Amino acid sequence: MLLVARLLLRPAIAVLLITAFAGYLRFTHLGHPGELVFDEVYYPKAGCILIGGSDETCRIDSGDEKFWRNDKWDVGSWVHPPLGKWQIGLGIKAFGMDPFGWRAGTAVAGTLTVTAVAIIAQLLWRRVAWTYVAGGLMATEHLSVVMSRTAILDSHLALWVAVGFLCLVLDRRWIDGRTVAARAASAARSPAGDDAPGVVVASRAWRVPSPIWRPWRFAMGMAFGAAISVKWSGAMALFGAFVLTFAWETARRRSSSPTLARAFMRVFARESFPIVLALVVVPLVVYAAIALPWMHHFDWDLARWWDTQKGSFRYHFDGGLGWTGVDPDTGASTPTHPYYARWWEWIVPPGRPTSFHVQDLGPDTQQILALGAPAVFWANLFAMPLVVWSLVRRHDWRAGFIAVAFAAQLLPWIRVGRPTFFFYVTPLVPFMVLGVTYLLQVAADAKLVVRDRETGEVAINPETGAPAVSTAYVYRPFVVAYLIVAALLFLWFWPVMTAGQVSDVRWRLIVWFNRWI
Fold first, then answer.
1. Which tens digits make up the pLDDT trace of 257-289?
2. pTM, to two decimals
3. Is 349 among the domain residues?
4. Dist CA 139 CA 77 (whole Å)
5. For the stretch 17-30, what's the b/e string if a residue is b when 16 or more beta carbons lie within 10 angstroms of its beta carbon?
6. Domain for residue 327, yes or no?
7. Which residues does 90 contact at the CB level (< 8 Å), separation at least 6?
8. pLDDT (tens digit, 9 = 90+) per residue, 194-217?
9. Which residue among 5, 23, 305, 409 sits deepest, i.e. has the most Cβ atoms within 10 Å of its Cβ?
10. Domains in the chain: how many in total?
11. Of residues 482, 458, 454, the one with CA closest to residue 470
12. Which domain holds residue 72?
């Protein structure tokens, strides 16, 4: 038993177990329901076309689909870049053009997203307990499960976004190690001791490492290039990585610069070129490389490829969706799709989830409901303010990482006027989970402290003369209770994640609000 306990406390074992658990949830009964659901009418067909399937194999039936196949080497999903469709196509290549085959690639992507979140948690907190917590919450998060079991693009986007931010954290660790070594080498060369008057001057003179070749930074650029090659909205995550990169580089130079402004200017002077190289040039190269099969298919007609890019832009930004009508009360053009959800409805309960599949079986019902886990989405209303507070007041880099990654992917949607849907929040879910884990970690490690009413200082226990700080972790029972409730809610909602057949009474007890129908 002791040996087993030691194995379970190893980070690598924790990550492997979480990955296996996430994979089990995503692959079990993956072929059910045995039909195309929701936007699966687009992406499996597109993936099948890319791997060379015939019209019959790829279920290309309508005149529109045949037109798009000839004109765009796709179906109606041509308005999105091809990487996610290639990943779906690989599953079809391996298992065939059937429900399991066209969902297998997405299930792999969803499973690996959980892996990335677990590794990020280990890097942030360096405690296996929080690796299990973050990985477990991500593995059982309802929207992530549904999206991982449905052959559409958003799980593929979430994977590359999570991998990109994982590489960002790994790059921070990589360069921090070299920065500490450079500082130590500079101190060793200084003739003065640490307590000598000239030590401040000496500390400002040490050279901060600024190598152009930072492997994890270039890997980050490749991952975000892949994200943009799934959906253009991956560029929002890339912008967040830009912000964090400049902020962390400025903080790294702060101790060797007289002012924060001087530190930033040094970053701008020394790091702009390598940052642009890794986070602009590399993503563009990845995007172009993924387009090479398309250009080869059309005999390297670059003008045709550029026209396709412009057509995609018009579709996304110039009202190409066209699902609008005139509001009789305001006269404004208003999206009319039944599952239209504004950006704030993604994060404020009860929200407006999307029904992917529903079948009335008389006294029973089958449904797939793309709904965020209440244990994560509702807790996020408390977690994200704490994360922002910790960034502002405590300058906690972990809080900054979570807050910027989340905000960079959410706030740009405020300016988007076309119809948006709840499942667009999928690439933000990893950072909701990390935010909730941050909240749980703070609560679990918190102790009661008695402070002087006048000074605010920690009071002294008159009996012991020691600071009046409790030795008990008083909030840990609440953390354990939260995790138990999260697990129970996952089991309760499982039928509407997987099109399980339940009685109408049970279904109504699961679908709590009319807006969820």
1. 888 889 899 999 999 999 999 999 999 999 999
2. 0.92
3. no
4. 28
5. bbbebbbebbbeeb
6. no
7. 47, 51, 105
8. 444 444 444 445 688 999 999 999
9. 409
10. 1
11. 458
12. 2-152
